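User: Predict the structure for this protein chain, please.
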Amino acid sequence: MGEAAWLKGNWGLALACLLALLLGVAFVLGFRPTVETARCPLGLISLGPRCCAEGQRLVGGACVGQPQSCPHGFTARTLGCVVNPKRIRIPAGKLSSGPADWQSPTPATRATPIESFEFDAFEVTVGAWWDCVGTGGCAPLGSRTIAREPGQPVTEVTPEQAESYCHRLGGRLPTLSEWMWAAAGAEERRFPWGQTGLVCRRASFGLIAGPCAEGGQQPELSGARPDGRTPEGVTDLAGNVAEWARSQMGHYRALGGSFESRVAGELSATAAFDAAAPARHIGFRCTYPASQP
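Assistant: Here is the predicted structure, written as structure tokens:
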């Protein structure tokens, strides 16, 4: 064997041994170099395209079974974990422009004064809609929605149905400017949490064909991305489901992108699109008059 061949063979052996040593150390320390595990918050585990509770299994894209435990701020129900509803006070200000995002298809209205209001911290859940149906205040929805988990955002509702739900709670759907103000704030954030950092642990997006998962069919639980909340504490304004809001002319649009979105422009704080009908990727949250400080 020539000297060059001998060196090549031994270098290859040395690299293989080093790689084996590093993998052994990683195994001992419990490292798991996967993106899926990192995207799920504490208290939920990664099962394919979904973050499910301990004790559940993934069936047909849904987390099924009685949860053994739920994350902090969630309540365990027979069919899954449901985030505890909360309202966040959004301070008054002036929506002077959208974030510095040339991809945004709908820049916010310039120099629009915004009065203080309260905003649902989380998207309205299927469980909350079931409760409304139980009291006779809401109409039962189609089987696709009823079959979903109580902690998922309710979808496939018309903006008029969403508006009626909010009215029963003393609120209404947000205006476009209010929604964008809650998402972008006085800092004119590109994303609800800040100017950068669109990653899978902050927003439920790209769950169908990447970049965050493959084979997703449904949104995550409302509130399942706490790392993506705004400085005030509002979650899921980017991704999971787009949300109905009302324009000054009385037209409805959907904002914020969804679990189907794959590009940053669909998930920015001013991303809005026209929608003609209810859809599996569109939900809502309510806004309310600000309580006295």
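Residues 3-29 form the longest helix (27 residues).
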